[in-house]
């Protein structure tokens, strides 16, 4: 059974129970209230009649004035009541009984004691007799029964209308509540089948609306992931195709005798092989980092000394390109890190500067502690990157289509690996425009100065 049918039955059952309970309560309450009202009205009227009879008995000293003229009881009953309000009910006096002090019947029809209500008649504060009247069950006439039947029919009609309305409202509520669930079901089925372009765009503000909004966000992420995966495969194929094509061309040229087998030819093949190996290693490291499988061995290490060592290892390359290197490093910067991975990060950053910065450029490296964070900044000189490219520098296989292009080398994986290493250490890395004209890379790592 579907959820719509279940909700329909739940709502319908709930409404029917409420309608039956309300109708039954109304009918029973009405009948009881009617009987109570009639009893109280008759009791009040009989009590006033008993006061009149007590006054007359005190004047005459006996019940002969009533026994000799029974019609007087009718007039007294009408006098005790409100003739204007109870017109048509004046024959109720025929149900009355007059009893003496011993409760012997003097006037009126006989009635069993269990069905009558006794009202004492006092004359000069002395008991002169009793005036009795039957309860409503004993004197209920056909008019009262017809009135109750009409009320019962009204309750049944009200119950029938309530059932019809319950069916309609239950169906509408079930449809209204299930509609967004069906939309979510169709949307998730489309996602399961690989269609990530659809959106719910639900205007609801309740829990289902928030769920629909989250599914839209999931669809967007899946669509972006699918597009990124397609670009990733395309870029990898392109990156691998180029060195392989060069290797194949060189080998075919050597094999056909077009190019002689010399030391320079072997070095060219070695360079392309080294480039291909470096690309494959970067892809492997990035895949491990994305999967959370890149291993880290965190130890207490001096980041300042590590930075000095890495810069010293690049001294001859800086000299070849006539770089001016400024170091603004503290004496020590102890923090918990993996020195191998941090060295890999620094290598990637320095290699980018060497590849892309013009000869005779400038490189500035600074390290500073702010609170419980260490901030390492690398700035190089021109050329820079466009504003639109800054947010994408850490994307997989991304390269700026300007002077920092493929001809200078690199596959656009170094900065992506740097970002994974920084995040694994609980830090962050970002790119900005450098005051020197190039790119400013800011690495933030958690730690305390010692």
Key phrases:
single chain, 450 residues, alpha+beta, five-stranded mixed beta sheet, four-stranded antiparallel beta sheet, 56% helix, rod-shaped
Q: Report mean pLDDT, rounded to a whole number.
A: 77
Residue share in β-strands:
15-25%
Name the structural class: alpha+beta
Total helices: the number is: 11
Instruction: Kindly report how far apart the N and C termini lie.
Output: 68 Å
Spatial extent as radius of gyration: 51 Å
Instruction: State the helical fraction.
Output: 55-70%
Shape: rod-shaped
What is the helix/strand order?
A: HHHEEEEHHHHEHHEEHEEHEE
Largest sheet: 5 strands, mixed
What does the model show?
The protein has 450 residues and is an alpha+beta fold. It has 11 helices and 11 strands. It has helices spanning 3-60, 64-67, 71-80, 136-139, 142-192, 207-255, 263-290, 303-313, 315-320, 339-356, 414-424; strands at 97-99, 105-107, 116-123, 126-134, 299-302, 324-328, 334-337, 362-370, 373-381, 428-433, 437-446. It has a 5-stranded mixed beta sheet, covered by helices on one side. A hairpin with a 2-residue loop joins strand 3 (116-123) and strand 4. The longest helix has 58 residues, at 3-60. Mean pLDDT is 77; it is low at 82-90 and 402-409.
Question: Helices and strands in order, then pairings?
Answer:
Elements: H1 3-60, H2 64-67, H3 71-80, E1 97-99, E2 105-107, E3 116-123, E4 126-134, H4 136-139, H5 142-192, H6 207-255, H7 263-290, E5 299-302, H8 303-313, H9 315-320, E6 324-328, E7 334-337, H10 339-356, E8 362-370, E9 373-381, H11 414-424, E10 428-433, E11 437-446
Parallel strand pairs: 6-8
Antiparallel strand pairs: 1-2, 1-4, 3-4, 5-7, 8-9, 9-11, 10-11
Helix pairs in contact: 1-3, 1-5, 5-6, 6-7, 7-11, 8-10, 10-11
């Amino acid at each position: 059974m579907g959820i719509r049918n279940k909700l329909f039955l739940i709502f319908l059952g709930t409404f029917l129970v409420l309608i039956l309970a309300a109708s039954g309560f109304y009918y029973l309450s009405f009948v009881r209230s009617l009987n109570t009202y009639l009893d109280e009205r008759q009791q009040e009227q009989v009590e006033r009649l008993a006061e009149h009879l007590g006054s007359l008995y005190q004047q005459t000293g006996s019940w002969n004035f009533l026994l000799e003229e029974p019609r007087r009881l009718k007039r007294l009953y009408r006098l005790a009541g409100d003739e204007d309000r109870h017109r048509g009910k004046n024959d109720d006096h025929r149900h009355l009984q007059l009893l003496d002090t011993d409760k012997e019947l003097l006037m009126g029809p006989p009635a069993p004691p269990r069905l009558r209500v006794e009202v004492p008649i006092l004359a000069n504060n002395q008991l002169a007799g009793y005036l009795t009247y039957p309860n409503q069950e004993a004197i209920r006439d056909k008019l009262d029964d017809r009135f109750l039947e009409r009320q019962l029919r009204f309750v049944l009609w009200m119950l029938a209308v309530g059932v019809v309305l319950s069916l309609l409202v239950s169906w509408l509520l079930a449809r209204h509540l299930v509609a967004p669930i069906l939309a979510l079901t169709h949307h998730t089925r489309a996602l399961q089948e690989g269609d990530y372009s659809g959106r719910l765009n639900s205007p609801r503000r309740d829990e289902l609306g928030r769920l629909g909004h989250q599914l839209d966000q999931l669809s967007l992420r899946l669509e972006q992931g699918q597009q990124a995966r397609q670009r990733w495969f395309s870029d990898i194929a392109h990156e691998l195709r180029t060195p392989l094509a060069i290797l194949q061309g060189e080998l075919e040229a050597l094999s056909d005798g077009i190019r002689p087998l010399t030391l320079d030819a072997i070095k060219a093949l070695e360079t392309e092989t080294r480039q291909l190996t470096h690309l494959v290693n970067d892809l492997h490291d990035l895949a491990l980092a994305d999967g959370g499988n890149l291993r880290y061995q965190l130890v207490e290490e001096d980041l300042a000394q590590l930075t000095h060592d890495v810069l010293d290892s690049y001294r001859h390359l800086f000299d070849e390109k006539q770089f001016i290197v400024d170091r603004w490093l503290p004496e020590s910067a102890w923090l918990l890190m993996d020195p191998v991975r941090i060295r890999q990060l620094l290598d990637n950053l320095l290699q980018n500067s060497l590849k892309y910065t013009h000869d005779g450029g400038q490189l500035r490296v600074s390290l500073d502690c702010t609170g419980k964070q260490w901030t390492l900044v690398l700035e190089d000189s021109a050329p820079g990157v466009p504003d639109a490219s800054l947010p994408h520098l850490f994307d997989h296989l991304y390269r700026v289509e300007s002077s920092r292009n493929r001809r200078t080398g690199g596959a656009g994986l170094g900065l992506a690996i740097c970002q994974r290493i920084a995040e694994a250490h609980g830090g962050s890395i970002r790119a900005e425009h450098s005051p020197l004209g190039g790119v400013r890379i800011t690495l933030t790592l958690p730690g305390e100065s010692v």
